[in-house]
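Hey, I was hoping to borrow your eyes for a little while. No rush at all, and the record is pasted right below:
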Amino acid sequence: MNSNRGGLCIYIIACTFALCSTQSVFAQTNPEPCKMLTQAEVSAATGVSVGAGQSLGGTCSWSGTPKVIVSLWYPGPALWAGIQHPNPPVSQTPASGVGDAAFYNTLGAYTSLGVQKGSTVFVVKIYGIADPSKQMAIEKALAANVIAKM
């Protein structure tokens, strides 16, 4: 149990660090995440009424009630490399049908979707949805919305 907590702690620390990163892995073509998803798109995908996106560096988050948070961010080069090659207990599975390359990283009941489209990379993460398969479906739908605006 303690090893699971340690892995979760490392994952949360990495995600927190990533959310604060403003570097670009490539020449990002759409670095303003709050312009890449609308409040309506996030509400429709989650089934929850969310507020306007709140920007923090290269990250935008939308929050709703019941407590659901969606984050879209553009990781820096070192973080993207780490996201692409996670260490156990994080598992990775390919995500087909979105971008040029995409994958889900999963730790316990938490997932995130990393996407590369052309020279742009981004990550979509949802909190507050218990079912990982539902998280994945929402993340993929939102990633498709982001790609449509690129």
